[in-house]
Amino acid sequence: MRFQALLLTAALGLGGCFGAPAPQPEGVVDLQQTMKAMGREWKAISQSDDPATIANHLAQIHQLSSDASRAMVRKGEQADYEDSMAKFQVALETVQGSIAAGEFDDLEPLLADLDALRKEYHKRFKP
Ligand code: HEM
């Protein structure tokens, strides 16, 4: 199990370098396109039970959510939106941490937590 965790950590490291999409340049975030890309990554996670594959898609979502956090939302809601996106990223990092530590048994509930945040924030911010 330890060796498996090591291998996975190495794969995660590479995924972090080569798997994540390039960040969008400052000031030109198309939130709808970024969210569509997040939707594709999320779907891929829901179709996989391989921790390394899930970890790669989580790394993509992390980068995409960083891009998304620079997008403008409705007037007066920007600070709340950025705060929510930061909370979402903390929850995401919890799942990434579990995979890196080789703790695969708890993935389902952690992914369910992420999904709950997605739903909550969509209710709050989606036009
Ligand atoms: C795994 C997490 C998430 C996924 C898979 C996801 C996916 C999506 C999808 C598929 C859309 C619809 C895009 C379209 O119009 O076709 C969308 C829209 C949106 N999402 Fe997310 N989302 C996630 C997390 C979040 C979070 C954490 C926030 C805010 C803190 C957020 C805020 C929004 C907003 C504001 C829109 C409307 C964008 C627009 O049309 O201008 N999403 N999301």
UniProtKB/TrEMBL annotation:
This is Cytochrome b562. Belongs to the cytochrome b562 family. One of its GO terms (molecular function) is iron ion binding. InterPro entries: Cyt_b562, Cyt_c/b562. Residues 1-22 form the signal peptide. Pfam families: Cytochrom_B562. SUPFAM superfamilies: Cytochromes. GO terms for biological process: electron transport chain. Keywords: Signal. Coiled coil: none annotated. One of its GO terms (cellular component) is periplasmic space.
